């Protein structure tokens, strides 16, 4: 990520730790924002016999990711940082691959979305460990909650037989 922009705060977390936490949170923000857009893309474009159930599932999952995006961004701001969540920032920093263009078949879309949720979930668990090492219980707790949501979402996706 790029240079950390910091704002004054009376937080008692050491500045060096806050800088690392803000960078960590912004990385997760980029990943979650990309995951959200890919989930909505899948929602809009999925086709097949199970269309309505999968279409609705993608919409529900996207809403949950959107809530997590807001929480992660606000945590970065609360630590005195700048939440880097514009589309261009997300495109630059996301660790997800591009959604394969032309993929609309229900099972193929489920597979692509499942892989994306697994990717972000694995990276989120790594972020939980890093936040814990930086001695910020609140960020650790937040990222753990997001990780749990991503794991449950992956369970719903994989339950379709992908």
From TrEMBL:
Species of the source: Telmatocola sphagniphila
Record-given protein name: DNA starvation/stationary phase protection protein Dps
CDD domains in the cross-refs: DPS
Database matches in Gene3D superfamilies: 1.20.1260.10
Pfam (any one): Ferritin
PANTHER family assigned: DNA PROTECTION DURING STARVATION PROTEIN, GENERAL STRESS PROTEIN 20U
Family recorded in the similarity comment: Belongs to the Dps family.
InterPro entries: DPS_DNA-bd (IPR002177), DPS_DNA-bd_CS (IPR023188), Ferritin-like (IPR012347), Ferritin-like_SF (IPR009078), Ferritin_DPS_dom (IPR008331)
Lineage: Bacteria, Pseudomonadati, Planctomycetota, Planctomycetia, Gemmatales
Superkingdom per UniProt: Bacteria
Annotated ranges, domain Ferritin/DPS: 22-160
GO MF: ferric iron binding; oxidoreductase activity, acting on metal ions
